[in-house]
Amino acid sequence: MMGKYTIIIFICILTSASELIAQKVDVPIFHESHVERKKESPFSDAVQVGNLFFLSGQIGIDNTTRTVVSGGIVAETKQTIQNIQDVLQHHGMELNNVVKCTVILHSMADFATFNEVYSNYFPQKPARTTFAASGLAMDAKIEIEVVAVKND
Questions:
Q1: CATH number of residue 51's parent domain
Q2: Residue 22 pLDDT more than 60?
Q3: Strand runs (DSSP E) across the chain, as ranges?
Q4: What is the 8-class DSSP label of residue 26?
Q5: Is the dihedral of CA 45, 150, 74, 115 positive or negative?
Q6: pTM value > 0.85
Q7: Beta-bridge partners for 101
Q8: Where in the sequence is the domain holding 70, given as residue range(s)?
């Protein structure tokens, strides 16, 4: 009687183990920047886990001059989103692949103006968190990081 239960338990364990082995395990891929000057940065432009891409925060920097664009929150928002588009395109995606944005503004006084510009780029309305923080890199007025899903 004991032998019968031992065999049944063994079969259950074996079945469970084979199911675990068959599961796909996604290993993070740390992608190097497509911008030559940024390849020396101590972080990845994007980290891929399966079909999810986690992009590092982007600011309104002109990647040629390596300076923040002039023109205030409108110009910086447009350049920031352009930089996001560039990273996404490098990985075969577009803004409509974005499912989550985290927006950091230097001042919440810029919220309405930022929101007006942002709305033109994200009509699909991805989930979003927006807050203010002082001391953004290079005295930027805005930083945006995104999560995107790449559909095969």
A1: 3.30.1330.40
A2: no
A3: 29-31, 46-49, 52-55, 58-59, 61-62, 67-68, 98-105, 127-132, 142-149
A4: P
A5: negative
A6: no
A7: 128, 146
A8: 27-149
Question: pLDDT at residue 63 above 80?
Answer: yes
How many domains does the structure of the chain reveal? 1
Task: Count the alpha carbons within 13 Å of 6 in the hemisphere toward its beta carbon.
Answer: 3
Cα–Cα distance measured from residue 106 to residue 120, given in angstroms and rounded to the nearest whole number: 21
- 21 in any annotated domain: no
In this predicted model, what pLDDT tens digit does every residue of 114-144 receive, in sequence order? Answer: 999 999 999 999 999 999 999 999 999 999 9
Q: Is 22 inside a domain boundary? A: no
* 11: pLDDT strictly greater than 80: no
SS3 52: strand
DSSP string, 76-89: HHHHHHHHHHHHHH
Taking a C-beta distance cutoff of 8 angstroms, is the pair 101, 145 a contact?
Answer: yes
